[in-house]
Design goal:
single chain, 54 residues, elongated
């Protein structure tokens, strides 16, 4: 596990917290969807960059 994968996973989890917060505040759905896509991409990139696959 390197620093880049850790940072991507942390940012993805931060975005997940933002999604929860924005949903509770009833923010526009487009913003929540955009944040969801960003969170998914960060988490996926972080998991794929893990060095356990080699």
């Amino acid at each position: 596990m390197n620093g880049t994968s850790t940072a991507l996973i942390v940012v993805g989890l931060f975005f997940l917290g933002g999604i929860y917060s924005f949903a509770k505040q009833q923010m526009p759905k487009g913003l929540i969807v955009l944040l969801s896509i960003g969170a998914g991409m960060c988490l996926l990139a972080g998991v794929l960059r893990l060095e356990v696959w080699n």
